[in-house]
Amino acid sequence: MVGLFSVTILVLVAVVAGTAVGIVVLRIWRRIRNRRLAALAAGPRRALLAFVADNGEEGSEDLIAIPDDAWSAALPAALGLLGKLRGDAHAALVSVFLHRGAARAALTDLHARSGVRRARAAQLLGDLELREAVPELCRLLTDRDHEVRVVAVRALGRIGDAKAAWRMIASLDDHDPVPSLLATQSLAQMGREAEVVLSAALDHPQARVRAVCLDALGLIGATGAVSRMARVLADDEVLDVRVAAAANLGRLGARGALKPLTDSLDPPAPDLLRAAAARALGDLGAPAAVPALAAHLDDGEFQIAHEAAQSLRRLGPPGIAALRERDNDHCREALALVAPELVGAS
Amino acid sequence: MTVVLVADDDADIRDLVAFKLEQAGFEVIAVEDGQTAIEQARSRQPTLAVLDVSMPGLSGIDVCRMLRAEPATAGILIIMLTARVQEQDVEGGFSAGADDYVTKPFSPRELVSRIQALLSRARA
């Protein structure tokens, strides 16, 4: 019995000692490997920084000629820079990546079994802003892996090709969709060329999709979509979508947005929408909105009167003059935020 | 020589910005976190600071507010460098007292031009 106990203890001690030695050896090996990689990467990294700092005017041949093991060691730095640069420096770095065959490899990796490899490939193709990759990246919008879909949306936004807009909007209809804010930003990055598709999607059956498209239209400054957005403001069956329409009409700053927004200040529009319209009129920046906003400074709904006062403040001297003519808490609060010289000037 | 403080926890961006600014003839102090940025700003009194918004510990916005709050550092020109592009983020940077806001992805050439323009306006 004592013998069996001793053997068990000895085995346990051996296992613990073996594990401890294993951990130490692994740590030493990792440290040595990291030092070796850092030493290997130091030269290429310096060359890379100099190349990018010079906007790629000199040194591309040297970077292309770097041996594969040294390039691999410097790759994290190169990828980091690629994602954070634009302009000539970015274009120069892209040409180095293309010469080293990175795009070809990434396009192949989009079909890899591993989700991590597919996501990395999509990220690289986006950072390379490679338009030829758009159809393949669109295919990833319905990837089985949520993270891959998110990376694909971000990559398509970075490339900014409006041809992907409809596929991206369709992917929002998924049972496990990408975050709205990310989709909005990516669609907005596609610019005015996406305006027609985004306007058409305002008739999409899903409220979330309509709201994303409204935000994207607002961000790209799609003044051509004012009448369609005004229709959503007036008629959409979902209140949150109407509120999004009001906010984005204000953001557009277009003359055509004035009437639909002032029309939404009064009942039968719901109070939430009336407040959103009052806020949007301040964003719109049109002095012509002053009379309509001033008429709501004594509105029975606190939020509407508050937003009307704050919007008048943001409209500058004509709005501030209207605030000074009325004496209530909302006006006093708004005037307290105005620079003294502006109060005097109005 | 004009001294510029660069604070960014991303070593590649920090080194790139420092490299580019040194090329343009500035003396650069490069640091990797907000606390060190504050200490360097107090001791070295740079003319201008380029601050990354998202740093561990003190963010660029925090550093900006703290520099503006101290008479000795309140006059330092500040450019925020960040990947945050939402309107409220930009507004947050300016309301903290930043003089300019550069969003990533950024162009190193444009960053240097903005720094030079800011310095020219300050000298005028």
UniProtKB/TrEMBL annotation, chain A:
Keyword Membrane in annotation: yes
Swiss-Prot/TrEMBL keywords: Membrane, Transmembrane, Transmembrane helix
Classification via SUPFAM superfamilies: ARM repeat
Transmembrane regions: 6-29
Any Pfam family matching the protein: HEAT_2
Name of this chain's protein: HEAT repeat domain-containing protein
Source organism of the structure: Paractinoplanes bogorensis
TrEMBL record, chain B:
InterPro entries the UniProt entry points to: CheY-like_superfamily, Sig_transdc_resp-reg_receiver, WalR-like
Keywords: DNA-binding, Phosphoprotein, Transcription, Transcription regulation, Two-component regulatory system
Gene3D superfamilies in alphabetical order: 3.40.50.2300
Residues bearing PTM 4-aspartylphosphate: 52
Organism domain of life: Bacteria
Domain Response regulatory residues, every copy: 3-119
PANTHER family: REGULATOR OF RPOS (PTHR48111), TWO-COMPONENT RESPONSE REGULATOR ORR33 (PTHR48111:SF1)
Identification of the protein by name: Response regulator
Organism for this UniProt entry: Paractinoplanes bogorensis
